[in-house]
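Service request form, structural biology core

Requester: graduate student, group of Dr. S.
Request type: structure prediction, single chain
Budget code: on file
Notes: please return the result as structure tokens.

Sequence provided:
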Amino acid sequence: MKKTLIACACLLLTACASPPVLTERTLASGAERAPEQLAVVFDKADLALRIEPSSRTIRGDATLTFMATAPLSRFVLDLDNNFTIDAVAVDGVAAAYSNPDGRLAITLPHPVAAGAQFGVRVRWHGAPHVAKKAPWDGGFVWSTTPDGQPWVASAVQGEGCDLFWPCIDHPQGKARVIDQHITVPAPLVAAGAGVAMGMDEAAGWRTYHWRAKNPSTYGISVNVGPYKLLSEDYRSRFGNTIPLRFWYLPTSEAKAKELMKEFTLVLDFFESSIGPYPFGDEKMGVVETPHLGMEHQTINAYGNGYAKTMYGYDELLQHEFAHEYFGNQVTNANWDDMWIHEGLGSYMQPLYMQYLRGDQEFFSTLMKMRSTVSNKAPMVSGKPRAEEDVYDQKRGGPGQDIYVKGALVMHTLRGLVGDEAFFRAVRELVYGTDAPAPGKNAPRYGSTREFIGFVNQASGRDLNWFFDVYMYQKELPELVATPSDGKLALRWKTEGDKPFPMPVDVRIAGKVQTVEMKDGQGSVALPAGATWTLDPHSKVLRRLQHIEQFQEYEKAKKKKTS
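Core staff response, request fulfilled:
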């Protein structure tokens, strides 16, 4: 009885204690890298994690191998300073270190010359930061299944990989190879990124071994539960065979089997539209998680409750899979270019609806997006930014516009240059070539400026004006139409009077005509009494007052009911 009371008191104190505070450095995922981090190539990470659900703690042992591109006398990693560091060694020799703010500074026991390889080993333990509402805030999720078994996951896109392992917390901080060794209480299962390399079991613990190539920094994740596994092999239209794997909770078996039928539909859409699935030599992997979802490379987190939209598909499954192309195969060189992940990824949903269902569903999906564009900040600032500075409109970021506005800008671009040039530019961005082949194109980094170059090359036109208005300014272009003296005069109005020679369709008396709009102006004959409609097929993203009025109505309604 006494022991029980003591244990209960300890649990109560733990529950009442304030959660550890994350430093600004740890919160600022994608912040400017230290000079030492810029002076290395990250060859390999060997990451061992012991997950202890009963105490909600982890114990880690990581050996990170780098090649120096410049002489080094110290090195820097990122790791949440709420962890206790047990030891740091460089090439087997103990090293002095300090970690006051989440930037782990290591004094190298010996200088490292340019071109030399060196290994840093860090051992640590503690309670990882707990997400309040993953995946919108980062951290671990300690949960239980409907029958009371441990169910654990991580989701760290916003705050970064340093929430649970020592890394270079920047989009360009990828390791060429990561070996994961995840130890969990038996008989739990740890589903991981890349290829399964086996499992060892001893003394009531299981260690699962995984190997992934070029994973994104936040694409490495922890997924632990009493999982069962669905397995299929898919013969790609490119001739290779892709393993399909879905780890699900036993209570979800019937729904899981139904959802897995969507895997091949999604795969074929992307392969027919964009190109070969980038990780076909590893797997298309999905794992059921206690949070909504995240694009963890080859092991997408899925927690959508097997919901279907009115279009008859699971939009979360499709959206997270889009990030295998836009996010994991091509990764933004800086968070400032995050629309590459989210805008292109989001445009794949209306395109998927057109592929799967037809034009009505395509335009319906686009219209839903259009109703939420906010235009609070430019989508691209043109300077390096941390993740939170992009996602948080209160910090001056574009927020959700990188999804919806990004998708609609891509739709407008596609209408302007045509399908051949548009998809060629997208393939160049994703693969670095217009002729990708399975297993031949390593993941790469992309930027807005690079994509503009691909578009200009594919279209044979200088379209910098298009991106200047849509990407680097917050306000949408406005089409001003003035009927007078038997004609309809048209003029583009832009923020700062930027050039915008965007052609526009006009339907007059049932007939559609294209007005070229050289120098941002144009006109078309308007017979007396004729009806007219601007952009009747919704090709061009532009300012629409009725959308703004709708948004104000929705805002007032929400305020009234809150």
